[in-house]
Description:
The chain is 19% helix and 32% strand.
Amino acid sequence: xxxxxxxxxxxxxxxxxxxxxxxxxxxxxxxxxxxxxxxxxxxxxxxxxxxxxxxxxxxxxxxxxxxxxxxxxxxxxxxxxxxxxxxxxxxxxxxxxxxxxxxxxxxxxxxxxxxxxxxxxxxxxxxxxxxxxxxxxxxxx
Length: 141
């Protein structure tokens, strides 16, 4: 089992939660291929909206990959992103600022946003559990 962070605006993750799917890195297939069934995903939203500049800087959703299927979904004539089906859990939006000094995947605590520029990356189980325990309304496992 692996633990992942996906960076996505808050408005875009709301569509994923509603539809029970996820996309990563603007619909690229590569990141989704790295995931396996039962892997966990935490979504970090640097901004409220994709096209706006209002900061969010919070973990906004948490989910588990349900299967090994990757598929494409036609959104527009020239945008057919890759997706995976995932199960979202009821959670609360969790600001990152109070957690920065406790998260091992953030090596440089003063330039903590750098890691998120990659859009998709793995994190240690201990970091996942720390974030999960802040986010989930009803803890599991």
